[in-house]
Amino acid sequence: MSTLLTAEYGVENIVKSFGGAKALSGVSLSVKSGEVHCIAGENGSGKSTLIKIMSGVHAPDTGLIRLGDKSFTKLSPREAVHEGVQVIFQDFSLLPNLSVAENIAIPTYISENSRFFSKSKTKEIAANALDLIGVDIDINASVTDISIASKQLIAIARATNQGVKMLFMDEPTTALTRKEIKHLFEVVEQLKERGVATIFVSHKIDEIQEICNTITILRNGEVVADGIMRDFKRDSISEAMTGLNVSETRIAPPLKKASTKVIEVRNLITKPTFLDISFSIAPGEILGITGLLGSGRTELAEAIFGQYPIDSGEVIVEGESIRLNSSPAALKAGIGYVPPDRLTQGLFLEQSILRNLVAVGVDQYQSRGKRLSKKRLAEAGEKWIKDLRIKTKNSLNPVTSLSGGNQQRVVLAKWLAMNPKLMILNGPTVGVDIGSKREILEIIRDRAQEGMGFLVVSDDIPELIQICHRVLVIKNGQISKEFNESELDEEVLYKELS
Amino acid sequence: MDFKKLLRRNETALIIAIVLLSVIIGAKSPEFYSLANLFDIFRSSFVQLLFALGVLVVIISGGIDVSFPVVGIFSGYSAVVLMKHFDWNPGNVSLPIALAIVIGVILGALNSIAIASFGIPTLIATLGTSGIFRGIMLTFIGSSFISDIPAALDKFATADLLKIQPAEGTLARLHVLIIPVVIITILVSLMLNRTMFGRSVYALGGGVEATRRLGISIKRTQAKVYMFVGGISGLAGILYVSLQRKANPYDLYGSELDIIAAVVLGGASIMGGYGTVFGTVLGVLLISLIKGNLILLGVSGSWQRAAIGALLLIGITVQAINESKKAKNRRVSTSDEVAG
Ligand SMILES: Nc1ncnc2c1ncn2[C@@H]1O[C@H](COP(=O)(O)OP(=O)(O)OP(=O)(O)O)[C@@H](O)[C@H]1O
Ligand SMILES: [Mg+2]
To answer: What is the pLDDT averaged over residues B2-14?
Structure first.
């Protein structure tokens, strides 16, 4: 800690409710400059709400916010920014109509209190910020046109600017692979050196253990444990979060021999993204696909679902070749696709949770006269809320009222409800807490046992090992290696990836 | 590649439309291609352009203001009434202009209060204030037509920068307003692109919550936006009075269609967040061309209004189509092409 004096940031006795439902009931915590503090907790435990209160986005019902030597009972985002607070929001909170460069540079202008705006300075700030986190994104592109991983990197670059003294990172790694995460952690170390206080939120426990010095664990809006990171073991964190002992052993069901295939993909080519990809999935089989950003794994998933152009090749579902480049055709053939960018792509955010849940398979809920049966809809909705443990008081509330992880579950439920023959899951447990991750994997397992085929695209190697029968590693648009059940091993897979 | 991009730009489409329309009108009536007619188109565009620049800023911010014509005529008419009442007869137009701008800013501030402080949706708020302002003007300030406006204003109507008499045909007069209007246009463009206020206006149009989280004050930005529209509408109003050489409180009312159509055709997104000054200038020229010259093609005045209404709808439809095309492309490119 060189330049900055040691400062403390924190909250005392924060209470916050949303229309009767308590999100936080008397939370206190503090973090010093040069320290990385973890907030852990299940989905809906109040992590994001706490961050929003400390950065002035939400006003607390009661309680005190301390930023350095100033205390606030009421704080605006503007005041927070001027105290050096920057946030990487869970939903990124970028401006879609502005360029990448502007999104990154605007906070710098604001913390400098500038009146004027210069294009060259903006580009310089953005280029430097992206350099700092070691990524190369076209700074002139519009934010609407870029991938979710790039969006997350931009949210990171924007918050790690020169003026930052207190940095909040709300699940900053959900869309990133190991390589970018490693780089991000180097940046966090640099910020630590500079005396920045950091609050880090993640559901990936190894990330927490790697980067954090201290930890606060929330459950249902209350602090259930806090202290020095070293004093917490992996199990004790997850147990404090959930109150349960969560096991991470392999749960893939035994694969029955089957002569048929749910899907066969033959010689898919779209230059330069993929060059000749072929594989097949048997009924009940769970096939994993992994690879680095830019390897083509996401494009492959999208291509099969007709959302990424295919130049040539064949996709055969249950023996019948389907029309390429058409997602209606893919849907009709029985392919479901859960996209990675769930918060912006997978949901009608302003619509009710119930409506979102039943959005895909609407015709299942028709009664005889072709009219939608309200009762059947509500029953199905309630069932999914229970099965996926979606944390909400009322299924008629809009999706925006759910915590990030619970929004993810709504998307997953929506597609499972459609009952496809092949389900493509792109990052099935991204942003989901470890207790529920286990439950989601168990749901996948059960569905597989009933014969549904799964294609799971994920960066989470332990998860792939837990659930998959086979894993393909994609590199530069080609399958670089295939791992059978007996060959699945963390070390080996990581090595193949790098 | 870049040529394709250029073709897809809204401005390019507008230029093509303007050129095509000119060719058609010119083919029918050759007098269209005269310097006098060009200068006339300019003259009829000045006031429109000023209004349009104000509307552009509101539309970018994600709002809409339908009170600007009333604010314009309120300011222009009141300035004239004030000057006559106190018998002010200045030698030049700076006093009435300053008066009208001040009145416009005050009316804009009232809009700001309704929108920023009470959070009333912008269309409803300005629709309401538009009625209130008009009522106040007609009841308390005056409802009669003033034909003997102060001498300075009257003289300004014929203040020409250039007079060119071609070998045959009519005398072409270029009004001196071309200079301040060009300067103001450039200043607005600089304000939008080179100041933090301008970028905050775009940010606001891109997303209220995301903008607030950046530490940009929504209320302050909105307040400034509506005061700016008020001020520039006041200026447009007094210039209108001057160019018309009369102050009629019933004028301008209803002209919001032309202006909003010009701004939307110029590429400003009705949903907020997008729009350029250059596009707006072209939009205004296109509308002026239609209003001033469709008559040469034998299209009657009432049909012109229909044509402009149709153009507004076309503009919005094109925006919607582009939007859904973009959404489609976006889905295809949600791939993760990050170079490490
Ligand atoms: N705007 C809102 N309106 C109503 N309820 C809300 C709102 N924001 C959050 N909540 C509720 O507050 C609780 C805490 O949500 P929060 O987003 O803080 O959870 P979280 O710990 O960040 O979870 P996750 O890991 O899923 O991101 C949840 O029950 C959520 O439904
Ligand atoms: Mg959260």
So the answer is: 70
What is the nearest CA distance from B198 to chain A, expressed in angstroms?
9
Say if residues A126 and A139 touch (Cβ distance below 8 Å): yes
- Give the separation between CA B271 and CA B327, rounded to whole angstroms: 15
Chain A CB within 8 Å of residue B210 CB = yes
* Calpha distance A457→A287 (Å, rounded): 9
Domain membership flag for residue B237: yes
Instruction: Give the distance (Å) from ligand 2 centre to CA of residue A87.
Output: 13
| Lowest model confidence (mean pLDDT) among A434-448, B132-146, B266-280, B320-334 | B320-334
Phi and psi, residue A86, nearest 5°: -130, 145
CA distances from B254 to B44, B170, B302 (A): 17, 32, 14
Q: Which of A96, A293, A345 sits opposite B334 (nearest CB)?
A: A345
Domain of B120, in residue numbers: 3-333
pLDDT for position B329: 52
**Mutating which of A52, A78, A81 best tests the B interface, going by the most B Cβ atoms within 10 A?**
A78
Q: For residues A44 and A431, what is the distance between their CA atoms, to the nearest angstrom?
A: 11
Q: A135 and B340 in contact by Cβ < 8 A? A: yes
State how many domains chain B has.
Answer: 1
- Cα–Cα dist A211/A200, whole Å: 9
* Closest partner CB to A307 (pick from B194, B202, B332): B332
CATH of the domain at B93: 1.10.3470
Question: Do A438 and A239 touch, CB atoms closer than 8 A?
Answer: no
Asked if residues A181 and A293 have their Cβ atoms less than 8 Å apart, the reply is no
**H helices present in A450-477, as ranges:** 461-467
Residues 264-293 of chain B whose Cβ lies under 8 A from any Cβ of chain A: 273-274
Residue in B211, B290, B19, B233 with CA at minimum distance from that of residue B107? B233
* Set of chain A residues whose Cβ sits within 8 Å of the Cβ of B214: 77, 81, 106-107, 110
Q: Does any domain span residue B158?
A: yes
Crossing angle between the packed helical segments B256-265 and B35-60, to the nearest 10 degrees: 80
Could you tell me the pTM of the whole model? 0.88
**Average pLDDT of B173-183?**
94
Query: How far apart are alpha carbons B257 and B263 in whole angstroms?
Result: 10
Whether residue B252 contacts residue B70, with contact meaning beta carbons closer than 8 Å, is answered with yes
Q: How many residues does chain B have?
A: 340
Tell me the ipTM for this assembly: 0.89
Residue A168's nearest CA partner among A53, A22, A26 is: A53
- What are A127's two structure tokens? 């280029």
Strands of the sheet containing A70-72, edge to edge, are A21-32, A8-18, A62-67, A70-72
A219, A277: one domain: no
Report if residue A220 sits inside a domain. yes
Which string of DSSP letters, residue by residue, matches A58-111? S--SEEEEEETTEEESS--HHHHHHTTEEEE-TT----TTSBHHHHHHHHHHHH
The reply to whether A247 falls in a domain is: no
Residue A98 is nearest to which of B195, B197, B202, comparing CB atoms?
B202
Percent of chain B exceeding pLDDT 90 equals 65
Give me the amino acid identity at A409. R
Whether pLDDT at B332 is above 50: no
Contact in structure between A291 and A497 (CB atoms under 8 Å):
yes
Between CA B72 and CA B75 the distance in angstroms is: 5
> A208 Cβ partners below 8 Å, 6+ apart?
A38, A40, A200, A202, A215, A229, A237
Comparing alpha-carbon positions, the chain B residue that sits nearest to A122 is B194
- CA A88 / ligand 2 centre spacing (Å): 11
Q: Whose CA is closest to A89, among A145, A191, A158, A181? A: A158
Helix (H) or strand (E) run with residue A336 in it: strand A335-338
Domain of A451? Answer: 263-497
Question: Contact A314/A321 with Cβ under 8 angstroms?
Answer: yes
